[in-house]
Amino acid sequence: MIDFNGYLFVDEYTYMIALDSMKHFTSLTIVPLKLNDDGVDLNDLEVKVKERRFKSQNKEFWAIYYTIPTYHNPTGILFSPTVCRGIVALSRKYDFLVVCDDVYNILHYDNKPQHSRLMSYDTRTDADYVGHVISNGSFSKIIGPGVRVGWLEVPPRLKPQLRHSGIINSGGCFNNYTAGIVGSLFELQLAQPHIARLYAAYKERMLAAIAVLKSELPNTCRFVTPSGGYFIWIRLPDQVKASEFLEYCFEHEKITFIVGSRFAVEEGKGQQFFRISIAFHKKEKLVDGISRLCLALKAFIKSVKHT
Amino acid sequence: MIDFNGYLFVDEYTYMIALDSMKHFTSLTIVPLKLNDDGVDLNDLEVKVKERRFKSQNKEFWAIYYTIPTYHNPTGILFSPTVCRGIVALSRKYDFLVVCDDVYNILHYDNKPQHSRLMSYDTRTDADYVGHVISNGSFSKIIGPGVRVGWLEVPPRLKPQLRHSGIINSGGCFNNYTAGIVGSLFELQLAQPHIARLYAAYKERMLAAIAVLKSELPNTCRFVTPSGGYFIWIRLPDQVKASEFLEYCFEHEKITFIVGSRFAVEEGKGQQFFRISIAFHKKEKLVDGISRLCLALKAFIKSVKHT
């Protein structure tokens, strides 16, 4: 019995729970893509898409590329305009759908990006525009995590498919009652100052966290300074495993983080990485925690070297 | 390319939007089952299950039977204890999962059924108990339609599968914020009187609707008196099509209903049926509407006979 409906391309490190959710819908073959500091590796994307392309008999698209182009989870990367333009060009050339998890987009702490969404590179005025990008937004990251109200921006040609979706029709919409509350929050001008307050707090926390890491992280470790979002993705030296450091760090400092392997599509990858979130703790606690984490890491690296 | 993951058995008339939702998840072959006045036809279920059974290589179950055993949508049927016991016996014998949409169960207007859920017939103390029934509950029918908070009761062996579900994990639970509100409504003893009020209103409406139909529905039409729930399912004489009567009824009386074919799994079926809901309008408006509908139906049947 063959059980095969298409391909799901994802970044080699990605938001794994989204991936788990998508696995429910159909039996997709998941293909990881190389990730650079400025976004997905376009050459890797083209090679892998090209060699797998087929004509689907019962689906609009033969493949989806799921990504988080703006303040990527877990890596914090902001996809560059060149990469965004390249993804759109490839999606048109090979006719696959790009699903962008655009949930951190307004949380920029550096210069505001010219376009905060990859979708804006799929320009409707282009001669070869068909519509290949879906943008998934959420209030959960900017109003409160329990809100779980979001929205989808889709090309016109995909609207009928969503309109006829049983999941959307059966519920009536995405979370009716809370959507009403969120709508009222905006009408009453209560959401706007709340979002501004969260934005300022996140920015302050991220900048403080980066400052501590720049001065205290052992120089054998590396990280790409995030310009927005929730996450910092730290690379350990080769001889250190994140899972072992997590054990050590929790035992000595009661500090936890998520190890890189949790975000890796391929078994055994990501062991040299871990992710810090700046969203949960107040600045003081966060700075103290990262400072102690850096100290613990120094001690741990030393202990590994000596064994 | 073969695209095949298993079977979904459903009643020949069923809640179609649920079916649409399930179609998203995988490519299932849908098999309709004969429905009698006391529930699904057990013989038809056994024959169809037996001839399709296979060993799934990548799924816990090779098939699901989706049904609404208590105050069925659209037919209003209450599955009898004999039918419930029979379904459980067959689900054990052929190892398929029974998913019960138990959303109207407490809305009984006649004697309270001894067991309001088919799940209670899958008795844990049975020697051959494994756990074959899922019961899906909802606050949407008893607190308010926009609530969209529900719960699942599952056999212990299925809990790990749900715990590891990406859809549940990604959202954190079924609708966090509204679930908190509903929880508080119960703690503050506000939900209980509200539900009691709705229950009394629905019961009054259903009994009034039935009384009007018993005295005014043309005697060439038939319906099974519902003992609970939202719906009354009316059968027209053979020469009358529900879709044509709907047009007539809307034009002359501005009354609408849902035609039977909307609930039919098979193309072309259900044309002799239509569904009335007692849930939306107050008793007076409902009684007036059904009364006018019966008059319109008499006139329409007459006009059809004469053409």
UniProtKB/TrEMBL annotation, chains A, B:
It comes from the Eukaryota. One of its GO terms (molecular function) is 2-aminoadipate transaminase activity. Coiled coil: none annotated. Residues 33-292 form the Aminotransferase class I/classII large domain. InterPro entries: Aminotransferase_I/II_large (IPR004839), PyrdxlP-dep_Trfase (IPR015424), PyrdxlP-dep_Trfase_major (IPR015421), PyrdxlP-dep_Trfase_small (IPR015422). PANTHER family: AMINOTRANSFERASE, LD15494P. This is Uncharacterized protein, isoform B. The gene is Dmoj\GI13866.
